[in-house]
Amino acid sequence: MLKRKLTALSFATSSDVSRNAGGFDVCSDATLPNLPVELIWQIAAHLVKPTLTHDFERLTVRKRKYDLCALRLVCRRLFETVHDVFLSAAFSALEVDLTLSHLEALVDIARDSRYSAAVKTLHFVMAEAWPDADDWDEAYDQEVLERNYIERGAGAILLRKALDGFSNLQAIKIQPTMWFPGNSRFVTSRWPHGEGSTTSLMSTIFAALSLSTARIKTLAFTRRHPFTDDLNGPTGCYIPHFSIPSSSMAAFQHLTTLDLVIALRPSKRFDLSMAVAFTVFLSTMKQLESLSIRFDSHVLSEIVTREFLIDCKFLKLRRFRLEVAWVWKTISGCCPLLEFVRNNKHVRHLEIAFMDLDEGGCTSFLETLRTECRDLEDVSLRYITEEMSAVLFNERKCISTRGVDGMAAWLSEAQRSISIANTDHDECPAARYENYPDDSEYDSSGSG
């Protein structure tokens, strides 16, 4: 149909040109293959971009592997004309769902150098759409069976094959997903693999990266809003994911951007070895320029933050964000957050949210920012405590306040920006775990 319409267009254009030949130079027939590449690309841009994800409606019709129809516009000549332009734009970022068919399709793309060389970003998501109630049991069991197979190691093997084929891969992004809210089938079924959350996704990705030859620069969670709390279960990665042998750390050592959401697993106990493993994981990243860490539990953060805040020094770090954290003083009396700021004075952008410090810690923290962090350009404080709010608005000799929609303040002497977004500290994300089921009976390690 498209070809017939374009042919008709070409006839009309040719006749118009012949009638007006006296006024301007005669142009070649305006058939689609003869159009300038830029104009062809404008037409091709209206096509749906390639994706490896699926929703349930497509799943019920057929298991959809990668579809090359987007490139089969009209003819081979047109394909060759637009091929390079289309590849660089449409294949630079691929969305991937960790199902067997989609991972197989990703491996197929990685094996073809024409396509694999164009891939720079892989965005991993998990389908949130589910079948209608009439077809729930059959479709649910089929989906869980396949994902269980992937999570048992097949996914990491396939993904590693794909990663090895993407020579220009620069970024891996993960969309946090929790299929099952607190009152869902998961609570009654008690199937550990039925969790289906980002924690399972991260486990597969970390395993594949550790074994692959990929050297990415960005590993990040993509979030609708940095402080959203609309999910009722683990939406990040577990601390044990960072216990990686030094021989398998090569894939992470070139990271310049790291954005993590770290989840509390309700049935697990945390010890110092986990905090040390996380610190070791971070300390190997000598090229890191942007670090963002959000914990889903203050309890978890209390153990982990103390270690890495004191020990980690990043020579190139320019942006640091810490969310949901208890930061208490050590036995020697030093504040880990102050030590981090002093060890990383070249940080330019600092963002803190849901953070509790020891009594008197807020004053010392702000004073350190003012006097010691000469490269600091802006500080964002969100969901601050009453103590920090009092410090910001009462110490007039250090802090000058000016209202911008009632939510801003500036450090007057250093001319640096402090923004305050919300002073209600009771909306803690950790509250989601009150209704989350304990899964200790499924702990394969035998420990609680």
TrEMBL record:
InterPro entries: LRR_dom_sf. It comes from the Eukaryota. It comes from Ascochyta lentis. This is F-box domain-containing protein.
